[in-house]
Amino acid sequence: MIHLIVGNTAAGKTTYSNKLKRKTNGILFSIDKWNNILFLSDKKPNDGLEWFLERIDRSEEIILDLLTQLEHSNNDSILDLGLSKFKHREKFRKFADLNGYQLKIHFLDVPKDIRLNRVMKRNAEMGETFEFEVSKENFDFMENWFEKPTKQEMIGGVIIKD
Question: Which residue of 37, 75, 119, 152 has the fewest CB atoms within a 10 Å radius of its CB?
Answer without folding.
Answer: 152
